[in-house]
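Thread: zinc ion complex, take 2
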Amino acid sequence: MPSTRDLDSGFRDAAQAIFDVAKELDRGFRITSSRRTRADQQRLWNNYVSGQSDLPAAPPGKSKHEMGLAVDIARPDVDPFEDEYLQRLGEIWKEAGGIWGGDFDDPVHFESPDGPSDAPKVSQAQGLRQSFVDRKAELRAVFDFFNPFS
Ligand SMILES: [Zn+2]
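Output below.
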């Protein structure tokens, strides 16, 4: 079962925060992909180019999943292209500085705007993480408003 544990240390808390918010909307949300090996990415790419996947995949070596800087979140019984919660989560993710796959036909995909945390440049992922941690209570209130019976 994929989890945020495998992710880059500078991105892990942000990914966990958005997943926690998703689970508050619906306990059915799952992490469907976190860090991938090159072999995983090759398999997904092959499926995509042969038309066996509705969701896009980056070529091997080009996916942030291989760096532990992207996470996929979905509900197994809901079409991600029709999932209003993913739309809302994506908006919040982008507002906090993240890259949301819904802008490129991949609504399950939540990506760090930055490179690996051991890269020499300043890690924006740290800011993203902090932004989510700081805003968690506020986000919860927004979702309670939209979804009072959950
Ligand atoms: Zn993804």
